[in-house]
Amino acid sequence: MKKYSIFDRIIDICGVVILIIMWYHTFSNYNYLPSSIPTHYNWFGEVDGFGQKQIISIMPIFASVLFVGFSLINHFLSGNKPSILKFNSIQIFWCNRLISLLKLIFVLIIGLIHYKTIQIAFGKCDSLGSWFVSVSFSIIMLVLIYFLNKIIKTNSNKL
Predict the structure, then answer these.
(1) How far is CA 99 from CA 31, 70, 75, in A?
(2) Which residues lie below 8 Å from residue 119, measured CB to CB, with a gap of 6+?
(3) Band of the pLDDT at 74, cuts 50, 70, 90?
(4) What is the pLDDT of residues 79-133, one digit of tens each?
């Protein structure tokens, strides 16, 4: 079994801290939320759907499941020999880095949406911000392009 690198540990610690904050934020604000809260946003970050306040717990649940799922995928990749997966060890390294970063990015994005949803429900702001969706999408795409390029180049160097 491969040991976790400092990078992986930092990513995991940051992700767990975000999850703890999300859960705390949910429990500490739940009783004060209005009965109807934002549940959906359009491309510009504007609220275009409302639902019951119980839905606020879906975001930390989803983020927690996503975090654990991505961690299990990383664990599986780290614990298998490259020949089983038809990848070389460098490709597996880059796949692990990609999954680790995506794990943190997704949890961070969900955490920000969760925070802003509660702020909007309390009337402290009126949208996620016109920049939020496009910046989030761009960050995810840049990370994917960068790491998939690394993985493909590693494969082409092997041939």
Answers:
(1) 36, 7, 11
(2) 125
(3) confident
(4) 655 555 566 777 778 888 899 999 999 999 999 999 999 999 999 999 998 899 9
C-alpha radius of gyration, the chain, whole number: 19
Question: Both tokens of residue 67?
Answer: 């975090």
CB 45 within 8 Å of CB 131: yes
Strands 36-41 vs 47-52: parallel, antiparallel or unpaired:
antiparallel
User: Has residue 1 been placed in a domain?
Assistant: no
Q: Which domain, by its residues, includes 107? A: 6-30+41-158
Per residue in 105-119, pLDDT (tens digit) is 999 999 999 999 999
For 9-129, strand residue ranges (E) read 36-41, 47-52
Residue type at 100?
A: S
What's the structural domain count of the chain? 1
Q: Is residue 13 part of a domain?
A: yes
Q: At residue 51, what are phi and psi to the nearest 5 degrees?
A: -155, -175
CB burial of 137-155 (b: ≥16 within 10 Å; e: otherwise) equals eeeeeebeeebeebbeebe
Query: With DSSP H G I counted as helix, E B as strand and the rest as coil, what are the percentages for the chain, rounded to 5?
Result: 75, 10, 15
Residue 36 lies in a domain: no
